[in-house]
Design a protein that fits this description.
The chain is about 75% helix and about 0% strand. By secondary structure, it is mainly alpha-helical. The protein has a single domain, classed as Na+/H+ antiporter like fold (Up-down Bundle). The longest helix has about 30 residues. The N and C termini lie far apart (about 60 Å).
């Protein structure tokens, strides 16, 4: 019995999970000593332990385990980020947020496409596909960074919210451009815009409904019979929000973020939990989010294709440099300056120009294109890997330093 295939696989899986958690714990402790965001060291640890390094972690991109950890991990981190958002902080910046999450994605994709066509000599439609894949920012990176680096609330919550909302826009734009590329131009742009609006509205409505229901069951004065089980409610509701909305062909990621926003602002709805239960819930969410980002970024690092990076290194590097230093500043200034009510300062906008890590969602989209054997998908994957590595390894560690230099750290 000890040698059956299922038991051996179970032992191998337990060993793998234990290894990832052990390495993640050590990396997190070291990150705290070095005062840098822990996702940076998780990514480096994954690269060292992956197939290109010691070969101790070999989880295929398309495996069930990998997809489960990526989907649920991203969802829970998004929920945590939404719960951290304070709606009274965003009330003056919502026009900027809306513009960044929609128009900003289009601008970023277009500028990146021009750079990809020039440096990598791609046909424009496939250059635009590349731009769409990496146009969205990464909540799985940004939420933990702003949890550890206390930046001015208006800036931090705008950037976190943008990263959650623009995921849906980035994914929809990717498949719209893919439809044009594979159909030879016979694609209805109007259908894509209607799809975007539909997915966004369904995601917001589904997340808001589940968030209100969860708040009712754990924090209502008379109906909170699940108050003691609040941590379990968050686990069930995060999965339900993602799966329920996704089944309606809408944005599950947007739903879990809005769910977190509603639950995190339950006091505005007149719901208040007892102090002890609220503290227990906070501790659970903090620990679960840490575990999820350990798995996500160690696995992401272990799956970086260095052979592919080497093949297109200089072209990919040039595109990502244009992406960071040209595309992002253009997006930030074009989308925020018209909003006079927000009273953005130059220092705040400068910080937002630098803070736009790429991560899980672009990586998943690139992997999807490779699996579908889309033309030039190997080039797109190479640039995506380069964007993930440079933005996480350069931008995330410098967040605290830049915020300090620009006098944006909270007291």
């Amino acid at each position: 019995m000890e040698n059956t295939a299922s038991i051996l696989q179970a032992k191998e899986l337990l060993l793998l999970l234990g290894l990832i958690l052990g390495v993640g714990t050590a990396s997190g402790f070291l990150a705290r000593l070095l005062k840098i965001p822990d996702v940076v060291l998780f990514l480096i640890a994954g690269m060292l332990l992956g197939s290109a390094g010691l070969g101790l972690i070999e989880v295929k991109v398309d495996s069930t385990l990998n997809q489960l950890l990526l989907i649920f991990g991203s969802c829970y981190i998004l929920f945590d980020g939404g719960a951290s958002v304070r709606l009274n902080v965003l009330k003056s910046v919502w026009p900027s947020l809306l513009s960044l999450a929609t128009l900003g994605v289009l601008i970023s994709a277009a500028v990146t496409a021009v750079a990809a066509q020039y440096f990598l000599h791609l046909p424009f439609i496939f250059a635009l596909l590349l731009g769409a894949v990496i146009a969205s920012t990464d909540p799985a990176t940004l939420v933990p960074v702003f949890k550890q680096v206390k930046v001015r609330a208006k800036v931090a919550q705008t950037v976190m919210s943008e990263s959650a909302f623009n995921d849906a826009m980035g994914a929809i734009l990717t498949f719209a451009v893919l439809g044009i590329a594979l159909s030879g131009g016979d694609y209805a742009i109007g259908d894509g815009l209607i799809s975007l609006l539909q997915q966004s509205l369904l995601g917001i409505m589904g997340g808001a409904l589940l968030g209100y229901l969860a708040a009712l069951l754990i924090a209502h004065e008379k109906l909170s019979f699940l108050a003691e089980y609040a941590p379990l409610v968050t686990l069930m509701a995060v999965a339900a929000a993602y799966l329920g909305v996704d089944m309606l062909h809408a944005s599950g990621f947007m739903a879990v973020f809005v769910f977190g926003m509603v639950l995190g602002n339950k006091d505005l709805l007149g719901f208040n939990m007892p102090v002890a239960e609220a503290r227990k819930l906070d501790d659970f969410v903090l620990t679960t989010s840490l575990i999820m980002r350990i798995f996500i970024f160690i696995l992401l690092g272990s799956q970086v294709n260095f052979a592919l990076l080497q093949q297109y290194f200089w072209g990919a590097l040039a595109v990502v440099v244009a992406f960071i230093f040209l595309s992002r500043p253009l997006v930030v200034f074009a989308c925020t300056l018209p909003n006079r009510q927000a009273k953005w300062t130059f220092k705040e906008l400068l910080f937002m120009c630098w803070t736009r890590e790429t991560g899980v969602i672009p990586g998943a989209l690139a992997g999807m294109l490779v699996g579908m054997q889309v033309p030039y998908s190997d080039v797109i994957a190479s640039v995506t890997f380069m964007a993930i590595l440079l933005t996480i390894l350069l931008q995330a560690p410098s967040t605290r330093w830049l915020a300090q230099k620009l006098d944006l750290l909270e007291d």
